[in-house]
Design goal:
32% strand; four-stranded antiparallel sheet; single chain; globular; 71 residues; 2 helices; alpha+beta
Length: 71
């Protein structure tokens, strides 16, 4: 299954530097920022790839639940 990042064209090693008007400082900031958005919200993502800047659009989706099996 393709996630919203893959659908938006994000690639491994892309560095997300901004979402809409918010600069992204690190992965924790990215996760907390996106978690505040409602599913279906469209965002503009600014990335660095191989030293060049790009932008793409994506729609926020719900994170799949993680099921842990206890033995």
């Amino acid at each position: 299954a393709h996630g919203p990042g893959q659908i938006a064209g994000l690639m491994p090693y892309d560095i997300i530097v901004q979402i809409n008007d918010t600069k992204i400082f690190d992965s924790k900031h990215f996760i907390s920022f996106v978690a505040q958005l409602d599913p279906g919200t469209e965002v503009v993502i600014y990335i660095l790839r191989d030293g060049k800047g790009y932008k793409t659009k994506a729609a926020v989706t719900m994170q799949p639940a993680f099921n842990f099996i206890r033995r």
